[in-house]
Design brief:
The complex is a heterodimer of chains A (329) and B (381). With 329 residues, chain A is mostly helical. Chain A has 15 helices and no strands. In chain A, 58% of the residues lie in helices and 0% in strands. Classes of the chains: A mainly alpha (329), B mainly beta (381).
């Protein structure tokens, strides 16, 4: 009797003890979160990448993304507590460029910036099967992840996009204390614009717009050929421009999603509602100024942006002038 | 053959070195067991027998009951390492508050388990409310929530065999080997919310922004709160050698055979099941007049993919005239406490640690427990 019982129990043990793939993933995520609590970014990345990208696992994506963000020196608490309250709809890039993490970008290849881009793309390409040459749309993501899980992923991406845009405008806007062209790069504008690019609006071309439409307090006003050295010439630096396009377009998409997800007004995000309104107005101005701006304005993938604009840079230049230049007084 | 089986079991245990990502969630724990490192599978002769090893019912005689008993547990806020966290605690700054409570495990527990035993039969009610919270990940703070509210009953019976441990007419006990096999059946209603939620994500922000009751319950439901009920079964085996002044005990139990699953009656997600746990315990008790001492050793839950060291439990107790002191080693952390027991009244208090990480001594949960039992009775023929 005892022997039979013991044999039976041992059989139960053997059958019950195999660690499933799911358990291994859960354990790795848990361990990575503990490592990220103590700031051990590299080891967290190593163990998470070690089990292979789990592109349909919401917790995995969230943790892997924050592990790369950790390497970027990014912190949601700092952004939420110290930086987000300073965001201003009247000076969108000015406020973002003065965020505490913005000055971490000292060159186009600064690790803080590149790791943050990686962290963002991990979330934007959530769902799996979305190649980098495909647009990471909300529809693609929601095929695999939905409801509050997708909402939480979008919020995480939104915060990182804001932080990355702060770095981008700080570096390429040569900003200091929220003002453009204040440091030693020597540029007044983001780009050396081709002033002959025509528009449909009041101003016949970009040259006219820069001279007459940009307010005098905008450093770029009247300065057609004063782009940032890292973005000059435009055609040779398209991938860097497309990083800006990628960040800004996805920021707008994700912001719209997050604001729609919120069941009620959240004080800390109220300023983002005002920013959203400002961006909508500027978008209308852009679409009135030039036809077919969708080539740039709706592009969500860096590689698609590059391929769409390699032959002709007039759209991306117009885009930069209307969004980055105009909104950075 | 028996020796070979035990050796095979031991080898299997050694080979099952792996890890489990969370605190192990038992249905109910005995406060005394927790103060003894939870090394209690072969010893559970108190009102918590049905939650450790139903076979031990075979060694119960007469009628006994615990009508009102409450166990209460919280995070050990007296721990000096954590006291500084709350000095000048920020009141309005959510981010600063998050920084302070990062990696600080919050535990709250309240349980009642009135039980009744008659010979080898037992019936126990249970109502257990447990909440665990911990904020992790310095980059994107994530709140891990583990909430359970279980209500139900457990009933069990055991059959004893062998000649050892029987009472003699002179008040002594017969020496020799004895054994017992037991089974238990339970019905549990469970309410639970389990998950990891980004602190600054829309789920939590919405929950905070929803101040009215209806709004909160809606968000709670969206987070995964659910209710369900289910039936479960346990079994156990106990072997005991009774000597002139000592008892050696060995017990093996399988709790929640094949897992206790809950049929969802409310909520959008499945109610977390009660995992099957296989427990093996050994103990030796010495009786020296008014002094009883016990040393115990357990391995549990041996069927779960857990770091082996987390399965190891050692316990010690000494009882003199109703006063007891306890100590133990609970999968890597010390436990200790004391009790006073006067017939209808029992009070117990102590400290214990549990593992909250994935491997031994990765993240300690430091806890205090308090137990009060009133209107206890026991009659023996």
């Amino acid at each position: 009797m005892l022997k039979i019982l013991l044999s039976f129990l041992i059989l139960i043990l053997i059958c019950a003890c195999g660690k499933s793939r799911e358990e291994l993933i859960d354990e790795t995520i848990e361990k990575a979160n503990i490592l990220l609590t103590s700031g051990n970014c590299d080891l967290a990345i190593t163990i998470l990448e070690g089990i292979g990208r789990q592109t349909k696992n919401f917790r995995y994506l969230r943790t892997l993304s924050s592990a790369y963000a950790c390497k970027a020196g990014y912190s949601e608490s700092v952004l939420f507590g110290d930086d987000l309250p300073n965001i201003s709809a009247t000076s969108v890039w000015g406020s973002l460029s003065s965020f505490s993490t913005s000055e971490k970008m000292t060159s186009p290849t600064s690790k803080s910036f590149t790791n943050l881009i990686t962290a963002i793309e991990i979330i934007l390409y959530a769902g799996g099967g979305i190649p980098s040459t495909t647009e990471p749309t909300v529809a693609e993501r929601s095929e695999f992840i939905s409801g509050s899980e997708l909402g939480d992923l979008h919020t995480q991406a939104l915060y990182m996009l804001i932080s990355a845009l702060g770095m981008y405008t700080y570096h390429y806007g040569d900003a200091d204390n929220g003002l453009k062209a204040q440091r030693d790069a020597g540029n007044d504008c983001f780009l050396n614009y081709n002033e002959d690019i025509t528009t449909n609006a009041t101003y016949a071309d970009l040259g006219d717009y820069i001279i007459a439409a940009l307010p005098p307090e905008n450093a770029c006003s009247g300065s057609v050929n004063s782009g940032h050295p890292d973005l000059t010439p435009v055609a040779a630096n398209l991938s860097r421009l497309c990083e800006g396009v990628f960040l800004f377009n996805n920021f707008r998409v994700v912001l719209t999603e997050v604001l729609a997800d919120l069941a009620a007004s959240v004080d800390d995000l109220d300023d983002l509602v005002a920013v959203d309104a400002v961006l909508d107005i500027q978008r209308m101005a852009l679409y009135q100024a030039k036809d077919d701006m969708e080539n740039v304005d709706t592009v969500l993938s860096r590689s698609v942006c590059v391929s769409e604009n390699t032959a002709n840079t007039e759209y991306i230049e117009t885009y930069f002038l209307y969004y980055f230049e105009t909104l950075f007084n | 053959m028996m020796t070979k089986l035990w050796v095979a079991l031991f080898i299997f245990l050694l080979l099952s070195i792996s890890s489990y990502a969370k605190e192990v969630h038992y249905l109910v724990r005995s406060p005394k067991a927790l103060l003894m490192g939870d090394a209690y599978t072969a010893l559970a002769d108190d009102e918590y027998t049905l939650f450790y090893n139903p076979a031990i019912l075979g060694y119960h005689s007469g009628v006994s009951g615990n009508i009102l008993n409450f166990d209460f547990g919280v995070t050990n806020v007296l721990d000096k390492k954590d006291l500084n966290r709350f000095d000048d605690f920020p009141k309005d700054d959510a981010a600063a508050m998050a920084d302070r409570i990062l990696d600080f495990p919050i535990h709250m527990h309240l349980g009642v388990t009135p039980s009744f035993k008659m010979e080898s039969f037992s019936f126990s009610l249970l109502a257990n409310w447990t909440s665990n919270y911990i904020l992790r990940n310095r980059v994107s703070p994530t709140l891990d929530v583990d909430f359970y509210y279980d209500r139900g009953f457990v009933t069990g019976y055991a059959y004893k065999f062998g000649r050892g441990g029987k009472k003699t007419k002179k008040g002594g006990r017969t020496t020799g080997l004895s054994g017992s096999a037991g089974v238990a059946l339970k019905h549990i209603k469970r309410e639970a919310l389990q998950g990891s939620f980004p602190l600054f994500g829309t789920s939590i922000l919405n929950a905070i922004a929803s101040r009215d009751d209806a709004g909160f319950s809606k968000i709670r439901n969206e987070l995964g709160y659910g209710k369900g009920d289910g039936w479960g079964a346990d079994t156990g085996l106990q072997l005991q050698y009774t000597g002139s002044f000592y008892d050696f005990m060995s017990g093996l139990s399988v709790m929640d055979i094949g897992h206790t699953n809950f049929k969802k009656v409310y909520g959008i997600r499945n109610v977390p099941r009660q995992e099957m746990m296989v427990n093996w315990g050994n103990a030796i008790q010495y009786h020296f007049g008014i002094l009883d001492t016990t040393f115990s050793f357990d391995l549990h839950p041996i069927n779960m993919p857990l770091d082996f060291a987390r399965k190891v439990h050692f316990g010690f107790s000494a009882d003199v005239l109703g006063y007891g002191v306890y100590g133990g080693w609970n999968g890597g952390y010390l436990s200790y406490g004391a009790s006073v027991n006067f017939f209808i009244f029992k009070l117990m208090a102590g400290f214990y640690g549990v593992e909250l990480g994935t491997e031994r001594r990765e993240k300690k949960g430091n806890r205090i427990l308090l137990y009060l039992s009133l209107l206890n009775f026991s009659f023996e023929p």
